[in-house]
Amino acid sequence: MNTGYCQTIIPTGTPFVKQYKKSQYKAGNQNWSLAIDKEGRIYSANTEGLLRFDGQYWRIYPLPNHSTVRSVAIDKAGRIYTGGRGEFGYWTSKAFGDMTYHSLSKLVADKTYFPNEEIWKIIVEDHRVFFHTFSKSYIWENNTIRPLIAKGEPFLFPHQLNNQLFFEQLPSGLHEFKAGKLVPVQGKEILRDKNVLAILPFDKDNSIIATARHGLYLMASNGIIKQWSIPANAILSQSQINNGIYLYDGQYAFGTIQNGVIIINKAGEIVQHINKNNGLQNNTVLSIVKDKQQNIWVGLDNGIDRIEINSSLSFYTDFVGKIGTVYTSIIYQGKIYLGTNKGLFVSEWKGLNNYNSLDFAQVPNSNGQVWTLAIFGEDLICGHNEGTFKLVGGKLEKISKITGGWIFKPIFGTKNILQGNYTGLSKFVFDGTQIQFVQQFSSIKEPVRFLAQKDNHSFWIGDWGQVQLIDFDPGFQKARILFTSMQDSLLLLNADLPEFIP
């Protein structure tokens, strides 16, 4: 594995999802298949043709008969194979990034049914290519086409696993393609009528078989198949698996018809679940692939999305506007708290190494703007538009009526704590157990958003419009202004202010 990649997908929050809407790529809604070339360009089998994205620009290439493109695959030479209704072939690049189409379907000898058949999947091997419909596979080899037909039965999909090629026939089950023949897999009866949608590597002795509505199975190298009893099977079965890929470090992504993308680890535990509630444009995943950066691209029933799983950042996004704009957050006594423009919200917190679907609820008595959260001893303190509050029994209780608590800053070496607020500067005292409001300094009349200690009795304070240097008496009961600058107080954040040295 490339050690430059994040080895374990972060299970808390959601990876960043970049949405590409129909209005951006200017083609059809549905993206049936995806492939990525050696330069990292994305190709989508789109309702209106072959869609290509080079990282900046989208371009659509219609098939000669203007049919929907159902499948796309790329070989080692860079040829881009596509299949649609009554048409299949490959594209090659020309100068200036344009492409030329080469039809192969003209090589089909029996054209009785072919004009009405659709190529739903393409399997590329070193010396041959399979263009697959639900009635047969057209094998292109040595520039000739020969059909592979399931005797008396329709196909579902073929699946490539390392050097093996499997075909599912309905209803008789899974077969391996060997020496030009379909050979029944020994344990195929357990999969009868299960609809195999993906076969993926697991370990040296087993592979994973993903079925549409019956979850995951393990197939041993001798062909024996058994159900894989794992925690994720229930949601995978309910969500209806449609496709799947191996990611890295024993992690797998399954695209579903009803519930977006579900990522599991090798123990069968859910690591991430990305759907319309937390980033996807649509819950129906028609296609899935990983790029050179090990991130996931999904072709949806409406749009294309990129899921940045190989990132050290994850997100919680409030798509329905329940919690509002977040200004501050803190983890306190096994829960995570968010201060927003709508109030204080709380969710259970199970840490970064456990799957956690964050579910925030508003803390009672917290309506309104929350600016800051801080922990003093055993207490959670909230700087709020309406004053300063302490969390008591799951509710907020006011400890100061001075409005707009923006920032707290302990005074080094003392029990005193300064708070910048809408109308100036407050002092609190923390005795190691309790925090109490003491006073608002009458000499400070301007809002204070920023605080930085200069020395034993001096602080820099500021708002967006000015910076002041203030000095306190030995008991920190009075404050006087020593210096005022009307320069933008953002300088306070960026300048090398004098550090307090005890």
Characterize the structure shown:
This protein is mainly β. It has 3 helices and 44 strands. Strands 1-28-27-26 form a 4-stranded antiparallel beta sheet.
List the helices and strands and how they pair.
Elements: E1 16-20, H1 22-25, E2 31-36, E3 42-46, E4 49-53, E5 58-61, E6 69-74, E7 80-84, E8 87-93, E9 99-103, E10 121-124, E11 129-132, E12 136-141, E13 144-149, E14 155-161, E15 164-169, E16 173-178, E17 181-184, E18 196-201, E19 206-211, E20 216-220, E21 225-227, H2 233-239, E22 241-246, E23 252-256, E24 261-264, E25 270-274, E26 285-290, E27 296-300, E28 303-308, E29 326-332, E30 335-340, E31 343-348, E32 361-362, E33 370-376, E34 379-384, E35 387-392, E36 395-400, E37 407-410, E38 416-421, E39 424-430, E40 435-440, E41 450-453, E42 458-462, E43 467-472, E44 479-485, H3 491-494
Antiparallel strand pairs: 1-28, 2-3, 3-4, 4-5, 6-7, 7-8, 8-9, 10-11, 11-12, 12-13, 14-15, 15-16, 16-17, 18-19, 19-20, 20-21, 22-23, 23-24, 24-25, 26-27, 27-28, 29-30, 30-31, 31-32, 33-34, 34-35, 35-36, 37-38, 38-39, 39-40, 41-42, 42-43, 43-44
